Amino acid sequence: VNSLKESIIFNFTKRKTPLVIDSKSISIKHVKEGDALIAFSKKEVLQYSQELINKGFKVSILYGSLPPEVRKMQVNKFLTGENNIAVSTDVIGMGVNLPVSRIIFTSHQKFDGKCLRELNQSECLQISGRAGRYGLSDIGHCTAFDSKGVNLIKYLIEQKPIVQKIGKLSIKPNFNHARTIKDFFKFDKKTEITDTLNYFSFELKLSNELFFTDKLNNQRKLAPFIDQFSLEFEEKFKLAFTPIDPKEEIILNYFLKYVKLIELNQQNNFNLNQIILELTAERYQDIKYVNLDI
């Protein structure tokens, strides 16, 4: 903060409803209305959802790659009471506010992209904190499917907050940074966004040791596709930072169709509702049982 010559404000709040970590683990047969099961993969979310649907529950599901419109619909169905159980990944701890009475961890471990590890304190606090919404519940409960999970969660939540030291921070370019690099090196029009992002990630040297340049993995993967189109550099830069995974072939194809419409100045012809329906049918056919009435 000091190196950026900025100020920082800390706001402290207190939880308005008590959170109780139940002393015993439970099984899926003891799940009840108002509960939210937490799993740590899309596959497990869908498996638990199907099992609960077979038991007669109406289930809302949430996971990171769910299309925003579908996610919003799933949240609304739980909020209105149309669905009475939620099954979610840890995305529930990231700004999703549901009237959940009890959080149930199906596992105390998660794969973080590198290895399978136990949940940390921050994750436990964020997720368990969803239980017991103020104004709707007098108390929130939290438990797990195994005793080891219950003990770990109880231990982490009752500990003083662990302050994690931050090393270097990555920075990404804004448009002015990118334009300066592009103009200085006079990159070829056909590769300008690719060359600019590669230079920023691997060649640019920073004078402040607190920061390092982000590798821009997704952006650099998108860049060669975007460079194929006849667009202004600023438009290419914005498109390169579209929050999609280039490895998702279906999503990438729709993205490129949209970029082509931009090139033709026909982006108003992009039928988002139709795309959502097609995506739901093609990529999300595994959740058709969730009653998606878009």
Q: Strand fraction band?
A: 5-15%
Distance between the termini: 45 Å
Please work out how many helical segments DSSP would assign. 10
The biggest sheet, with number of strands, parallel, antiparallel or mixed sense and barrel status, is: 6 strands, parallel
Low-pLDDT runs: 285-294
Compressed to H and E, one letter per element, the order equals: EEHEHEEEEHEHEHHEHHHH
Output the strand order for the largest sheet.
Answer: 1-8-5-2-4-3
Top keywords for this entry?
six-stranded parallel β-sheet, 294 residues, two-stranded antiparallel sheet, alpha/beta, disordered C terminus, 10 strands
Describe the structure.
The two termini are 45 Å apart. This protein has helices spanning 42-54, 68-79, 121-128, 147-158, 175-185, 192-202, 217-226, 233-240, 249-263, 272-282, and strands spanning 19-21, 35-38, 59-62, 85-88, 102-105, 109-111, 116-118, 140-144, 169-171, 211-213. β6 (109-111) and β7 form a beta hairpin. It has 294 residues and is α/β, with parallel strands linked by helices. The chain has a six-stranded parallel β-sheet with strand order 1-8-5-2-4-3. Residues 285-294 have low confidence and may be disordered. It is globular.
Topology:
Blueprint: E1 19-21, E2 35-38, H1 42-54, E3 59-62, H2 68-79, E4 85-88, E5 102-105, E6 109-111, E7 116-118, H3 121-128, E8 140-144, H4 147-158, E9 169-171, H5 175-185, H6 192-202, E10 211-213, H7 217-226, H8 233-240, H9 249-263, H10 272-282
Parallel strand pairs: 1-8, 2-4, 2-5, 3-4, 5-8, 9-10
Antiparallel strand pairs: 6-7
Helix pairs in contact: 5-6, 6-7, 7-8
